[in-house]
């Protein structure tokens, strides 16, 4: 019990109260209930605090404190801490009398924080935090003091000051971002971060990282300050900043099909864009044999999963849910060049160099920068026996994008192929090399040549599962990117047989609203238009000379097949159409044009033959007479046709092209009339729905995967674990037996299913409960009598059963 030392009974009796002994907590509660009645005690305790403070400062001046920081007179420190906490609690009730107390306390802690005993320093800090929480003193005036307290080496004090700074700034920005108060606080922490003192800079960096991670200071200034800490003179500060930038990004496993399958129903309800035609679902569940229905159901599930994955990636990029502090770099190119120059000249250990290398690669891929000296630097470390080779290769993959010249990456690419993929290399190295080649070609397909791809495709016959799977994934990629580089048997059934990778620097510039053509073919996608209209639309799109017409033609044919014939027939139709198209893959452009002209002339001839037959049929008399006249008319018509063939061909060609232009103008005119050139929210919503239906139909046909865009690849972080090959070695007989016995431990003893069913695990049966039921004596007697009567009747019936009439009577 702490007593009021130095309190004489005279002032207490003069105020009308008895001179009883009062403790500080009880006096504190009474002063909060009646502030005006205890002003005398307040002045008394305030004067005691000032005297204790002067006494302690005199002891410190006379060097009475020991080297360890423990004062020679502990009673003075105890009185000082108790009265400081007391005054901090009652300060809100006496704002005028204690107006100078907060500033005196902060000045005392700032001047003699290093010489104070740990207990006194902790209590004074708590008193100051109490004043800040009650908004008696501003956090702006005490932030530098609390940051200084974190560098004293006291663990409890450091934790207390750090949590107070973070929670105070969070509470200040709870309802809205208070920029007027955030700016001065940020300037204080930024100035501490730029100092040469390692302890202060480290505490400032930790505070900024925590506030940025909690999304309190989630702005460009804080992110740039953290990134600029990578250039601090202290290696510890640099490592802390690099580790924060690397650990901030979480690797998302997009290939987790099991989780997608388990939550498919929930995602279907949340995302109505996943649209599968009712006809395909009905055929998968009700038509065909059990095996064919099973295959159709599996195909539907694959299509749903692929569409969900693509929608998740697109939603992440559209809603900007992906975030990294590197996104806010004001001068990304200068940051990368400066960090790379430090990487080349530093003498840090290999782990630190790897961290710097990862940050450089991540920034290059994220901002599509060009750092040509980075790839030869990586080439020195590309060896199968190199430490952390998968992390190094993942960084090399992330540094590749479509804006980098292929000539700069080609030596690194050849180094990976020569060092990892050869016959004398281990299966793990071959699989890693093939996976890295696939990821690099996904970003820069121009690096691959035809001979190299065909050589790498031969590894699909390897007996090692990891190697064959990696080779097949490479083949699957080039079926979509450039099927002409593969051998014909490896091409499979590509969606676009004439697909080519874009040349270096080539950009698709949109001249219209994306996917606005879906509104033109809205009826075809919905399946509401009849067969004739769909055939006309397909013929119009097939006459187009652009490269995109092939995609549209295959799409329309796939849609018509899915609506008319079903999933299985549509695959057969695509096989036939693709076999016809595959013969023209290796031809030149001139030969392609010649073939197109031949096809057009054959179509014109066929149309003219049909017209001619219709004319002759209509001119034929109904009574069947005059056969000789019909023969003469046919010969004359054939002669006229042969003589005017060239003129008719030119006229038909011009008429077809005129019809095509007329149809396009009519379709564009209807859209312009309906929308007046302005698209509303309903149009964009309809475009989104039609795009989902189109993706659903193509996903049912497509066997490969959809190639992500360059922006999606830049956002996606490459996981080094996915590049590794998990080759499962062959187990011996003893190891296999050990695995079998280990699997039997948790399993119970074998029993037949009937024995398991008959084994009773619950309570008593109803018959057993009847026997134990408490009944009156009369009821028991009546029940026993009924049972005796029933037994007697049964006994009588057993001897007098009618067994049928004898035959001889």
From TrEMBL:
**One GO cellular component from the entry?**
nucleolus
Q: Which residues form a coiled coil?
A: none
Q: Does the keyword Endoplasmic reticulum apply?
A: no
Q: What is its main location?
A: nucleus
Keyword entries, A-Z? Nucleus, Protein transport, Ribosome biogenesis, Transport
Q: Does the keyword Nucleus apply?
A: yes
**SDA1 C-terminal domain ranges (all copies):** 762-807
The record places domain SDA1 N-terminal at 86-462
Protein's job: Required for 60S pre-ribosomal subunits export to the cytoplasm.
Q: Which PANTHER family match?
A: HSDA/SDA1-RELATED, PROTEIN SDA1 HOMOLOG
- What's the family? Belongs to the SDA1 family.
| Protein known as | Protein SDA1
The scientific name of the source species is Herrania umbratica
Q: Which gene encodes it?
A: LOC110422902
């Amino acid at each position: 019990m702490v007593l009021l030392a130095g309190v004489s009974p005279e002032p207490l009796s003069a105020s009308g109260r008895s001179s009883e002994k009062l403790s500080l907590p009880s006096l504190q509660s009474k002063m909060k209930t009646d502030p005006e009645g205890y002003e005398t005690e307040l002045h008394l305790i305030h004067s005691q605090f000032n005297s204790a403070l002067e006494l302690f400062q005199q002891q410190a001046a006379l060097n009475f404190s020991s080297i360890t920081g423990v004062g020679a007179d502990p009673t003075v420190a105890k009185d000082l801490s108790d009265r400081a906490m007391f005054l901090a609690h009652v300060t809100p009730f006496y704002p005028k009398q204690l107006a100078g107390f907060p500033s005196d306390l902060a000045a005392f802690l700032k001047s003699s924080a290093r010489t104070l005993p740990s207990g006194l320093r902790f209590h004074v800090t708590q008193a100051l935090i109490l004043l800040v929480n009650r908004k008696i003193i501003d956090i702006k005036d005490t932030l530098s003091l609390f940051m200084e307290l974190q560098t004293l080496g006291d663990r409890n004090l450091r934790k207390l000051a750090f949590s107070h700074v973070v929670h105070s700034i969070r509470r200040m920005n709870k309802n809205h971002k208070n920029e007027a108060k955030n700016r001065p606080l940020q300037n204080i922490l930024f100035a501490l971060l730029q100092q040469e003192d390692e302890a202060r800079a480290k505490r400032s960096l930790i505070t900024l990282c925590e506030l940025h991670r909690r999304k309190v200071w989630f702005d460009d200034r804080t992110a740039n300050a953290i990134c600029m800490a990578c250039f601090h003179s202290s290696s510890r500060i640099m490592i802390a900043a690099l580790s924060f930038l690397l650990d901030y990004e979480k690797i998302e496993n997009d290939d987790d099909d099991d989780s997608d399958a388990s939550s498919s129903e929930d995602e279907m309800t949340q995302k109505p864009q996943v649209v599968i035609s009712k006809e395909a679902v009905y055929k998968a569940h009700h038509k065909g044999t059990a095996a064919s229905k099973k295959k159709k159901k599996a195909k539907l599930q694959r299509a749903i999963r692929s569409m969900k994955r693509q929608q998740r990636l697109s939603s992440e990029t559209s809603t900007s849910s992906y975030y990294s502090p590197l996104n806010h770099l004001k001068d990304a190119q200068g940051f990368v060049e400066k960090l790379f120059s430090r990487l080349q000249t530093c003498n840090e250990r290999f782990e630190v160099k790897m961290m710097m290398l990862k940050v450089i690669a991540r920034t290059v891929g994220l901002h599509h920068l060009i750092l040509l000296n980075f790839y030869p630097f990586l080439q020195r470390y590309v060896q199968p026996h190199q430490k952390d080779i998968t992390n190094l290769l993942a960084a090399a993959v992330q540094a590749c994008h479509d804006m980098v010249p292929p000539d700069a990456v080609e030596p690194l690419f050849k180094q990976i192929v020569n060092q990892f993929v050869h016959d004398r290399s281990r299966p793990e190295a071959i699989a890693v090399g093939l996976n890295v080649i696939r990821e690099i070609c996904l970003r820069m397909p121009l690096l691959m040549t035809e001979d190299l791809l065909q050589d790498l495709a031969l590894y699909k016959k390897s007996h090692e599962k990891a190697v064959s799977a990696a080779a097949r994934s490479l083949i699957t990629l080039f079926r979509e990117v450039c099927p002409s580089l593969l051998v014909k048997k490896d091409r499979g059934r590509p969606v676009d047989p004439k697909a080519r990778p874009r040349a270096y620097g080539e950009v698709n510039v949109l001249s219209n609203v994306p996917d606005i053509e879906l509104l033109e073919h809205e009826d075809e996608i919905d399946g509401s238009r009849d067969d004739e209209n769909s055939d006309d639309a397909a013929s119009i799109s097939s006459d187009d000379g652009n490269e995109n017409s092939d995609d549209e033609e295959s799409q329309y044919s796939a849609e018509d097949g899915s609506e008319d014939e079903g999933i299985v027939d549509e695959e057969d139709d695509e096989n036939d159409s693709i076999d016809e198209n595959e013969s023209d893959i290796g031809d030149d452009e001139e030969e392609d044009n010649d073939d197109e002209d031949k096809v057009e002339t054959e179509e014109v001839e066929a149309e003219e033959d049909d017209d001619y037959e219709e004319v002759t049929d209509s001119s034929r008399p109904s009574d069947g007479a005059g056969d000789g006249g019909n023969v003469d008319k046919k010969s004359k018509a054939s002669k006229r046709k042969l003589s005017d063939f060239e003129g008719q061909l030119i006229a038909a060609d011009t008429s077809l092209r005129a019809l095509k232009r007329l149809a396009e103008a009519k379709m564009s005119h209807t859209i312009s009339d309906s929308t007046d050139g302005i698209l509303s929210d309903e149009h964009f919503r309809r475009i989104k729905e039609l795009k989902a239906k189109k993706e659903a139909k193509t996903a049912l046909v497509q066997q490969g995967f959809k190639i992500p865009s360059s922006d999606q690849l830049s956002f996606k972080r490459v996981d080094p674990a996915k590049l590794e090959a998990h080759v499962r070695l062959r187990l011996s007989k003893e190891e296999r037996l050990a695995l079998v016995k280990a699997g039997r431990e948790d399993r119970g003893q074998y029993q037949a299913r009937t024995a398991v069913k008959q084994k009773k695990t619950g309570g008593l049966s109803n018959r057993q409960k009847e026997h134990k039921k408490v009944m009156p004596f009369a009821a028991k007697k009546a029940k026993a009598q009924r049972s005796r009567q029933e037994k007697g009747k049964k006994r009588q019936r057993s001897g007098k059963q009618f067994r049928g009439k004898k035959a001889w009577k």
